[in-house]
Amino acid sequence: MQAATQHQPAPITIGGRQFAWGERTYVMGILNVTPDSFSGDGVGTDVDAAVRLAVRMCEDGADMIDVGGESTRPGAEEIDAEEELRRTIPVVERLARELDVPVSIDTYKADVAKAAIEAGAALVNDVYGFRREPALAGVVAKAGVPVVAMHYQRGREFKDTIGNVIEGWLESLRIAREAGLPEERVILDPGFNFGWTNEQALEMLRRLGELRVVGRPLLIGTSRKSTIGAVLGGLPAEERLEGTAATVAISVAGGADIVRVHDVKEMSRVARMADAIVRGWKEEK
Predict the structure, then answer these.
(1) What is the number of structural domains in the chain?
(2) Sorting pLDDT into bands at 50, 70 and 90, what band is 76?
(3) What is the domain extent for residue 83?
(4) Which residue, 208, 209, 210, 204, is CA-closest to 225?
(5) Which residue among 73, 225, 272, 282 is the active-site one?
């Protein structure tokens, strides 16, 4: 299968941990410190609640925790950097002290990324792939941390699903190079449900292996997304567990290196099972 036979990028160290691509699928737990998350899982500004949720996700198998302070759902109100800092930095500081897995900051704002890294974040997750705030690439380059660069399709002309993703990624990598950020520290995300029709989003997963051509680790975030709800007859976000499981399994088969999920316990099990099929498995004696 593709995930087992593709040439793998070199490992990346995140927060003191080495992530070796191709050995298994890593799980990123979603921690929304927002009042308006599309999936209804936001914990607001309750730092203690955020820490409890993060600890539980780690116990359930999360390899990293992604802290987000601004909703990226369609129609969500944008917030300024000051409000995003107020929501995220106290949580990042606590998690960086209390967890034994890397903490990621989900932001496209250079100022927020800088403050979060100073607070202990070991990874930046930028849904705009530097194309909203190119200065973020310079912040990451200077800090020496890895980054996830996502292709954001909303508002862009559609040509071809795979072609659009690769075109967006190449632009992100160009911005990174110009900022002094080595390509070897960049993880790529095709942006499932960020500006695609449901048919295009499904095609992305079906053809995911073709995106390995860029040669970087792939992160996929399908968890509870609207396409799953549409395929399953209009199910609300809280009832999309099984649909998410199917997308995670297909993503692993297509070569995903990281899956970004809400339901960590269940999706960790799905990823382990899919890994055993795709990458091989030896029974422990």
Answers:
(1) 1
(2) confident
(3) 2-6+23-278
(4) 204
(5) 225
Instruction: Give strand ranges (E) for 216-262.
Output: 219-220, 258-261
Mean pLDDT of 68-92: 90
Indicate the pTM of the whole model.
Answer: 0.94
CA 53, CA 57: separation in Å to the nearest integer?
A: 6
Structural domain includes residue 12: no
The contacts of residue 192 (CB under 8 Å, 6+ apart) are 201, 204, 205, 220, 221, 222, 225, 227, 247
Between helices 161-178 and 135-143, what is the axis angle to 10°?
A: 60
Q: Which of 216, 260, 265, 279 is catalytic?
A: 260
CATH number of the domain that residue 38 is part of:
3.20.20.20
Cα 21 from Cα 73, distance rounded (Å)? 29
Q: Is 177 a catalytic residue?
A: no
| CA gap 24, 238 in Å, rounded | 27
Output b/e per residue, 189-201; b: 16+ Cβ within 10 A. Answer: bbbbbbbbeeebb
Instruction: Classify residue 252: in a domain, yes or no.
Output: yes
pLDDT in tens, 189-237: 999 999 999 999 999 999 999 999 999 999 999 999 999 999 999 999 9
13 occurs within a structural domain = no
For residue 225, indicate whether it is catalytic: yes
